[in-house]
Write a structure and sequence with these properties.
Layout: H1 6-32, E1 35-39, H2 44-50, E2 55-56, E3 65-73, E4 79-87, E5 95-101, H3 108-129, E6 160-172, E7 176-190, E8 194-211, E9 214-232, E10 237-248, E11 253-266, E12 276-291, E13 301-317, E14 320-331, E15 334-351, E16 354-365, H4 378-383, E17 392-402
Parallel strand pairs: 1-2, 1-3
Antiparallel strand pairs: 3-4, 4-5, 6-7, 7-8, 8-9, 9-10, 10-11, 11-12, 12-13, 13-14, 14-15, 15-16, 16-17
């Protein structure tokens, strides 16, 4: 019987130890590579370009880490982003929730860089559990941290945001010319319990249309001021007061002012508004109108009590988004003068690669008491100088998409 030499035994032992570990390492890489699916209203290409240590997949069925980013306007004039990470397969027991706030003073580049930083922070849990953990380098920027206790965090503006804006637009063709401008002022004060808004605007639009040596001109002018105070009562209830005034040549209003108390109930707590909400809002109030021309009811002025019910449903879930809104309004002195508005949109992920979307709106209009008497002139029709009588408005759209092919291509190429 021949026995192996000590040198041969060492080679055999090394082979028996190394080969299984190589195979195991390859299997670990195959299992633990992060396949990231991101669903957001943000610059996905920027995230793909900057986060290169994961595979970005195009369908959540191919992912083992799913990221949903929900956003909504916040009190600083920016947006609040809620990031929800959910692991599957090898990462099925790992989840993470983060938040990121932007403000009105940030540029688009500032916002996307801040969001990128937050996404990278959220991915850290999964990277630590992956085969990339040993490549992580930790660093903490201590710049300015020694003086944090001396910083006064009191807001000198007391949560108020102000905006002044102006815009102008000119279009010109051989037979048509139009010019419009708008200027305005907005303010918004937001706290956990209170929201105060004001909105002042001035708009003018002039149009000119030439046909067969005839020149038709139109001038539309409007100014308006609106304000509201809304107070939170609980996690589900809010109440508020709305008031305003306006002048609008298009709708035959010389001057109108209104006042409406309101109450709102959300079936879900308000802190879940980014993911889901079912809201009922009821308003009852009074408005008084002075008209430019006598109306179809031979009125130059009138005051009316009215009411409305506004129902909104919104769901943003991994399987898709649903939004629907129903508004019903009527005059208290005449229920035949009413309006019903229904609008909605749906985006559903049916299965891998296939998505369908629907949107539509429909209005039944029975409350156009402000229409001027007499027939509409050709200027009114061609240039939309005045509001025209109608019984309804309708619009809809449908879309279907199916994506297939490479699921792991992380290359960004924006060339022509």
């Amino acid at each position: 019987m021949k026995f192996c030499t000590p040198r041969a035994n060492q080679i055999i032992l090394a082979f028996l130890f190394i080969v299984p570990n190589i195979l195991l390492s390859q299997e670990a890489v195959k299992k633990e590579t992060i396949q990231l699916y991101t669903d957001c209203s943000c610059e996905k290409n920027y995230l793909r370009q900057e986060i290169t240590y994961v595979n970005h997949v195009r369908d959540q069925a191919q992912a083992n880490v799913i990221l949903f980013i929900y956003d909504i306007a916040n009190g600083s004039g920016g947006r609040t982003y809620k990031l929800e990470f959910e692991g599957t397969e090898d990462y099925k027991d790992i989840s993470n929730k983060l938040s990121y706030d932007s403000n009105a003073n940030m540029t688009a580049d500032d916002v996307r860089k801040g969001l990128l930083k937050k996404v990278k922070s959220g991915l850290l849990k999964y990277v630590i559990e992956s085969d990339m953990a040993e490549h992580i380098k930790y660093s903490i920027d201590n710049k300015g941290m020694d003086n944090l206790q001396d910083i006064d965090f009191k807001d000198p503006w007391n949560n108020w945001i102000f905006e002044v804006f102006g815009r102008a637009r000119l279009n010109k063709e051989s037979s048509r010319e139009s010019f419009s401008y708008a200027v305005g002022f907005e303010s918004d004060h937001v706290t956990e319990k209170l929201r105060i808004r004001t909105d002042l605007q001035l708009n003018q639009a002039n149009s000119e249309y030439e046909q067969d040596d005839e020149i038709y001109t139109s001038e539309r002018f409007r100014y308006s001021g609106d304000g509201s105070i809304v107070r939170s009562i609980s996690d589900h209830w809010s109440t508020g007061i709305f008031a305003g005034a306006r002048h609008d040549t298009f709708t035959n209003l010389d001057f109108r002012y209104y006042f409406s108390p309101a109450i709102e109930y959300n079936i879900f707590p308000y802190n879940e508004v980014l993911r889901r909400e079912i809201v009922f809002a009821y308003k009852i109030g009074y408005f008084h109108s002075d008209y430019i021309d006598p109306t179809i009811y031979d009125k130059l002025e009138e005051g009316i009590f009215n009411q409305s019910l506004d129902v909104q449903v919104r769901y943003r879930q991994p399987w898709g988004n649903i939004y629907a809104r129903l508004i019903g309004s009527t005059f208290l002195n005449d229920f035949t003068k009413n309006r019903i508005q229904l609008s909605g949109s749906t985006s559903l992920r049916l299965f891998k690669g296939l998505a369908v979307s629907f949107s539509g709106n429909f209005q039944i209009i029975r409350d156009q008491i402000n229409l001027p008497a007499g027939d509409a002139s050709i200027e009114d029709v061609l240039l939309q100088q005045k509001q025209i009588a109608t019984d309804y408005q309708l619009g809809s759209s449908i879309g279907l998409s199916y994506t297939f092919g490479s699921a792991y291509n992380n290359i960004i190429n924006t060339r022509l």
